[in-house]
Amino acid sequence: METSRADFSDWYHSVLEEAEVIDSRYNLKGTYAWRPFGFKLRTLVFGELRRLMDETGHDETLFPLLIPEDQLMKEAKHIKGFEDGVYWVTKGGLSDLEVPLALRPTSETVMYPLFKLWIRSHADLPLKIYQIVNTFRYETKHTRPLIRDREISTFKEAHCAHPDQKGVDEEMELIRKAYDDFFAALCVPAVVVERPEWDRFPGAVKTVSWDVVMPDYKTLQSATSHDLGTGFSKTFEVMYENEKGEQQLCHLNSHGISSRIIAAVIGVHGDEHGLVLPPAFAPIQAVVVPVVFKGDKKKIESAAKKVFGSLSCRKEIDTSDDNPGAKYYRWELKGVPVRIEVGPRDVEKGEAVLVRRDTRQKKAVKLKDVDKEVAKLLAEITKSMKKKALEFHEQAIANAKSRDSLREADKAALPVLVPVCGDAKCWGKLEGSMKRLEFRGTVLGAKPSGKCIGCGKKAESIGLFSNAY
Ligand SMILES: [Zn+2]
Question: Could you tell me the fold of the domain covering 279-381?
Answer without folding.
Answer: Rossmann fold (3.40.50)
